[in-house]
Predict the structure.
Amino acid sequence: MPEVVVAIPTFRRPQSLMRLLAALAKLETHADVTIIVADNDAEKHEGFDVCEALCDYRWPLDHFIAPARGIANVRNALVERALTHDCEFIAMLDDDEWPEPGWLDAFLRTHTATRADALHGCVLRAYETAPGPMAAQLDGIKDMHGVTGVVDMIPGTGNVIFTRACFEDMPKPCFDPAFALCGGEDSDFFERLRRQGKRFAWCEEAVVHAWVPASRGNLRWALSRAYSVGNSDMRVFLKYPHSAAARAVEFAKIVGALLLTPILFVILGLVTNRAVDALRKLFRAAGKIAAFRGRYYDEYSVTHGA
């Protein structure tokens, strides 16, 4: 029977955390599961209190307060805690997500088939308010799908599962605290795994739902998200040595986005999806330029949802 720790960072989303824990209690799995919750709010500790109030919960529930603010710091606290448990796998879910009953066993089957070290699953969005057509197809608002099997890279730590070795073999801290409030700590971690020779896979059958509050289901937030991703991606790129050719390619992408996107937006203005994708590329390029100049965007300084 595989032993799995499900690690959950939380910050001021008690209602979302309750929904997630309720869904985890309904898992249809043959695995031996332990849930770990790290509340990153030492002041209000609403997530910790949610866990304290649970009685007769189906799984062992290890909850604690991780006082050092920032997504990288709370993930490091979760990793440290998870490694004290006798587990083969460590899964990570965000506190605004909730899995379908077959989520965990789908991951475990795909791991057996691919022998991947880290796997990402499908994410289906649930909206408080339906996003407009200009925002509906942008990252962070649209669903995340893939084809089950080995992939070159996976996009983030919302709905992922790792072998224990991913963390044991990684110099500590696993997640760089420099990315604490800006995000990108997951991209940096996956890049370090890739450089170690770890393998990645996608599991379309490992489905979670993710709540999109009204404050995020709109074009303004989606474009700020594109800027943030570009900003953190460039920070990760600059952190590691690259060949002159790789740097030239990255520079060409930025210049191309800056020069061509405004033109494409005008040409494609009547084709909503293609025009908004041109805008997305422009905002990502702007985020990259800002990072190149040493300016960082702290996306996680604001909490969305409850």
